[in-house]
Amino acid sequence: MTRSKNTKLLHIGSAPFDEPSQTAGVSLPSIRTSTVRFKNLDALEHAQRRRASGERVVTYGISGLQTHRALEDVFMAIEDGTYCVLNPSGLASIYLVFMSVLRSGEHVLVSDNVYGPVRTMNETLLKRLNIEITFFSPSQDDIASLIRPNTKMIYVESPGSLLMEMLDMPALSAVARAHDLVLATDNTWGSHVYQPLTLGADISLVAGTKYIGGHSDLLLGAVVTNRDDLAQALHQTQYAMGNAVSADDVWLALRGVKTLAIRLKQHTENALGICAYLDQHPKVSRLYFPPWHKDPGHALWQRDCSGGNGLLSLSLNASANDAKTFVNQLKLFGLGFSWGGFESLVQWVSPSALSSHRYWNEGDRAVVRLHIGLESVEDLIADLDQAFEAMTDSR
Ligand SMILES: *Cc1c(COP(=O)(O)O)cnc(C)c1O
User: Fold this and answer.
1) pTM (two decimals)
2) How far is the C-alpha of 346 from the C-alpha of 333, rounded, in Å?
3) 122 C-alpha vs ligand 1 centroid, how far in Å?
4) Which atom from ligand 1 is nearest to the alpha carbon of 89?
5) I want to staple 15 with a disulfide (CB 3.0 to 4.6 A). Which of 25, 65, 206, 284 is the partner?
6) For the residues 1-16, what does the mean pLDDT come to?
7) Domain endpoint, select from 233, 257, 281
8) What CA–CA distances, in Å, run from 313 to 2, 355, 366?
């Protein structure tokens, strides 16, 4: 019987039966140990042989123990992949992908809508390592014309950061295939509702810090692939970098996943309710949210995604100062980075962050990103309403 992904996620990571008592815990404990003891040298060598042949055998904490294996299984089920490497943060996952695929002297094409810290990583690390990035617009550039003899990877994010630009993953995959490039994507927005690997990507990474954890109480990342060669490079590089993940954080993520599907459903319903309110508000210029029927990426979202979440942006018919008043005035929306937890958050999007996104075409309009949490929609609308009221000038 083939089971739905949601059913699978509820049952992955159940504790195994204890033979003497014939019972098992419903949930797996957090296995907090830095190392394991082997019964004798034969057992140690046997474990090492199995490990060398690619089996996921526990030998030492850096590559994880049973709790970690269960979360790897979760990410593989979510992403439809066969290999998973856990990382201490989403950003560490991004860095791991770059370090596993690229060598000094090589070139990578990166979509201009990526998570901002990728640009910091470029300035502080990649340039020092002589790895060169060309940022490109997925909607406006002829990608094939940007490929050089030393290009090794196309790295994208769909939907993109800040403006949720939907990309055509199968089309990107066709370009990557034709030029023998690795196609890697940040699937944090789409985790659980979007499977880039089935659409032709080679690597999908997720910041588990967001919806997988779901409670704003942990940092974690995962890299998933179906390719043996990439899996080997990812595992070796992860070990070499010493990127260990705490079993307690893994345990929290395993618990978060049990409610992932139901949370995402409610986040989406709340976000669409907020969109219906914002869409008719005179202070709102445009909404950026692929599940919303007026978003330019809606058709791609309908084609490729099975659901939504609570992360959206809006541009305002207001001066920058007035937009800041709106942000400052919000009470239920906490002002802060990140998203994907149970709570609503607002982030002021700086114009300099948008100037490099060619998908952006609203000039100097102010943009605010909202994470719509699980509070009741009526309360969130009331909060937005009083913040709009506090805006003073009319534009
Ligand atoms: C938050 C985020 C990350 C990084 O995750 P951390 O765990 O905070 O390092 C990566 N990509 C996207 C799209 C994100 O939103």
Assistant:
1) 0.96
2) 6
3) 16
4) 7
5) 25
6) 84
7) 257
8) 37, 15, 10
